[in-house]
């Protein structure tokens, strides 16, 4: 079992602590939190060992799970890598692209593994249809959230939209040729609602919308490709696959058949795969443990996290 320690015991940090504690791939050694009073409360309530300093925690583990505010990711990661530790780092990877690239360089120099917490890659609804998404030409995503002061220290693009940016970049194997976007700050000092349009060299277009001042929650993505429409609801963990094929010469009474102006007839049918229930955060943490122990590439590499941050930064620069 890998010895794991968590930096940061906020909302998400406490979830990571609980899951690492129950994981069969890790031995949770303890945690550190810069807010000493919060750290003491968490230690007393759950019984986790509280380290006095970041360095003490890093020295005691094999893997450092960085769940601190984004502004501190860079320094935490540098310290862990310098001491020869693998790092799991929550999204966004760092505050700037330059910091992310430096972390990647350090990790490679030390021969260590790193993974970024883009948890939607492990969402069961997405996993169920991932193999069906082939060369999409139009993608539309909506990620809406009710207002929560937590996370408003960064623009909504880095808080919410970056999830969908990562998913899209992992699917569309083409360079971005143009980005246009708009964002509005309503309650926070940074944009609370944003829309971005990504145009890829292969012709694919992605339209992304994110808001943290919505009256309802929504986390949906729709993929349109030749002869297929695929939708993923990341929130309800449901998916839908609608396909078209050449219509039979003699369709059945209940077959859905469309005919275009040229007389081409297509049959519409539904092919919805089974969604396996899982805990996405536990799965991403254990997938990282597998990458470390087998010396293989993590599912979400630091390169992936850097590229998602790079696109997010370019979107913000459009505002």
What does this entry look like structurally?
By secondary structure, the chain is an alpha/beta fold. It folds into two domains: 2-112, 3-Layer(aba) Sandwich (Rossmann fold), CATH 3.40.50.720; 121-278 and 312-317, 2-Layer Sandwich (Dihydrodipicolinate Reductase, domain 2), CATH 3.30.360. Helices cover 33% and strands 28% of the residues. It is built from nine helices and 14 strands. It has helices at 11-22, 36-46, 54-59, 73-82, 97-110, 124-129, 156-171, 280-294, 302-317, and strands at 2-7, 26-32, 63-66, 86-90, 114-117, 138-144, 176-184, 193-200, 205-211, 218-225, 228-233, 238-246, 256-259, 265-270. The strands form two sheets. A nine-stranded mixed beta sheet has the order 7-8-9-6-10-11-12-14-13. Strand 1 (2-7), helix 1 (11-22) and strand 2 (26-32) form a beta-alpha-beta unit. The N and C termini lie far apart (46 Å).
Short structural description:
With 319 residues, the protein is of the alpha/beta class. 33% of the residues lie in helices and 28% in strands. The model has no long low-confidence stretch (mean pLDDT 94).
